[in-house]
């Protein structure tokens, strides 16, 4: 009888562990939002979201930050943009 519970509960905990692993892998995937134009006038901006996912957006070199913000809001399908902001982080150091 105890071996039955051990097997059953063991299988349930393994299922939860596998689900957590799938969620971790999904969080580290990156999404690319391409831009039209030649590659010389395009810059790729990487945005790290709070859930751990990365979104890369291609923008013209002369684009303003508002264009990047608008693309990210559109990609995430968010309407209320007043609650969110972008923060610039240099690649050499964090924040």
TrEMBL record:
A GO CC term assigned to this protein in UniProt: cytoskeleton
Primary localisation category: cytoplasm
Any one GO BP annotation for this protein: actomyosin structure organization
Domain of life: Eukaryota
Record's keyword terms, sorted: Cytoplasm
Protein name: FERM domain-containing protein
InterPro entries linked: FERM_domain, FERM_N, Ubiquitin-like_domsf
Subcellular location(s) of the protein: Cytoplasm
Boundaries of every FERM domain copy: 43-95
Pfam families the UniProt entry points to: FERM_N
Keyword set includes Heme: no
Transmembrane segments annotated in the record for this chain: none
């Amino acid at each position: 009888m105890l071996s039955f519970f051990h097997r059953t509960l063991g299988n349930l905990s393994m299922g939860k562990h596998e689900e957590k692993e799938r969620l971790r892998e999904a969080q580290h995937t990156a999404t690319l939002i391409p831009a039209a134009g030649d590659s010389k006038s395009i810059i790729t901006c990487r945005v790290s979201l709070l859930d751990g996912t990365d979104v890369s957006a291609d923008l013209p070199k002369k684009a303003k930050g508002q264009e990047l913000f608008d693309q990210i809001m559109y990609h995430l399908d968010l309407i209320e943009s007043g609650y969110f902001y972008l923060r610039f982080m240099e690649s050499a150091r964090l924040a």
